Amino acid sequence: MHGILEHAKSNGDGLGNTEPGGPAQSAELPVLIVGGGPTGLLSAYMLSKHGIKSLLIEKYPERLAAPKAHALCPRSLEICRQYGLDTNAMRKLGTPREDASWVNFVTDLSRDHIGLLPYERMDAGVLEHTPEFVAKELEHDPNVEIRKNVAFITSRQVPEPSKKKYTWLTLMLEVDDHVISTVEERSTKAQWQVRSRHVLACDGAKSQVRADLAIESEDETMMTIHFKANLRSVVGERTGMLYWITDPACSGFIIAYDLDANHVLISNFNSKKNPVNSWSQELAQTTIAAAIGQKVPFEVLSYRPWLLSRKVANQYRQGNIFLYVSPGSGTVSSRLNHNVSRVGDAAHSFPPTGGLGLNSGIADAHNIVYKVAAVHHGWATPSILRTYEDDRRQIALVNSTQSVKNGKKIFSFLKALGTAGIDDMEEARRNLYKSVHDPAKQDMIAREIEGQREHFDNLGLHIGYVYGDKTTSPHASKFSPKFTPGGRLPHAWIKPRLSAASFNVVPLDVSYVKEFPQAVIDDRQFSMLDLVEFDSFTLIVSSHDTWAPRVGQLDKIFQSSGINLRLRSFDNDFEFVYEEQLQMYNDGSGILHGSGLLVRPDQHLLGFLDAKSTAEDLASLILAHVGK
Q1: What is the value of pTM for the model shown?
Q2: Which of 129, 167, 319, 372 has its CA 20 to 30 A from that of 459?
């Protein structure tokens, strides 16, 4: 493959080393993405949709065998859909709805069933609030170069004012407002310096970018064991996405990606008794056998320690370096260089059972990418990048608080079973089975299980957050549509007045909800969210003719700035499928009385305009957001 780094080899200019002691080389591009997990790949894909080239480096030569995150929330599917990914196909790749509807609390898979809870709102009613293979999409994308087995070494921000000389490694550099990053090919130790305008740090909870920026974290080690087994005969009718194993011999949870074959056990092991470096194939097999509880053929595919931290970064961005969130559990504190953003676990991470990590990372990417694109294409000033931290860090803090709350409730549950805080495993096991079979304790155990409900039902966190709102919802499961600036545009089912092609997305297929008759399936193919395209602001109104003249005046106001605004009207472009959802919109925004909803490119509300608002009022909202 002849790409950016090979080009640098043939055009070295004294900025790095191709090999120890060898000549120095450099490469230049708009965006460097560190980390080839879901958030990194999606960021590269979305940037390409905006016409921006990126180099994505991933330190591992192959994808890790054991999956970590196990659920895409409705908001993540909405984001993927907006950028043209086939969410109908994605849904078919997942665990069947009939197998994934429950969280089971068990001693092990074969013995006592302690209780169960619904898993993440699988009921049909959730579709009233939301209509809802990235690597393959990038295989032939000319805007994205992916390099595996390439590690990030370090980066430095180059300040904006005039050109100055800076010491880089042992060399003197003369550069302007960019980030200089050193990357290394792990097999050959060849190094390059990559000069980019922005760096997106998507390299996970053990982020090298975060370490380079002196970010501290507090970690807890769990063991992830990926195994193959047919567990359908073991669980019988007790199907579910998660199995919470309470037996101290293998305390943790099983994620049942495919009951017939594919599973992961995440075990909270005693690192004093069994240090990470003492783990072996035999110990992994013993742990899996204890979790299953009966002799069933299985194969351990891999086992890896998983560091979970419990902090949220003090800063998500310094300059043009940005950090994202990703699967895990955590909090970090740091000072960031100006041009680096953290995305995913690099910015925050959360215990995997809550489903907050990966989904928060995708939302991080969604938020920062259109802003980077706006600056790159010149229709926003760099000040818009400051809103990334303003928007996303508060969401991470709320999710982190929920994560701690979940952890306390799980501890309370284990305490009720008599296993919490007991170092002697046999004593803890005796307490467990005595409690499970004690009639006097059943009501208390049932209450403790009910107390776990919002651990596995986070609809309010997934789609109910409002940028700029620092209040915390008292219950993560509760959701109601919010017509307020910073909130996600509320979902409603709509139909195109002309052709489906006018929406620029493929129709949704909700036939996976077996309860729906064909008429309902036919009615639920498009959402209000489909009106919003990722490269423009959107104004949603009732009357096209009333607002079109005002929108037409914006060209003079914006003066070829590159800002795009699309007008979508109830009388010209779409109609509501359900009268009650039209009424919800009118109650929340006054759309039938001449008001307009102004929506950001990321489908969040920017503001409202009343019937008397002028073109200048509309322009001022947009210009304030883009920093002009």
Answers
A1: 0.84
A2: 372
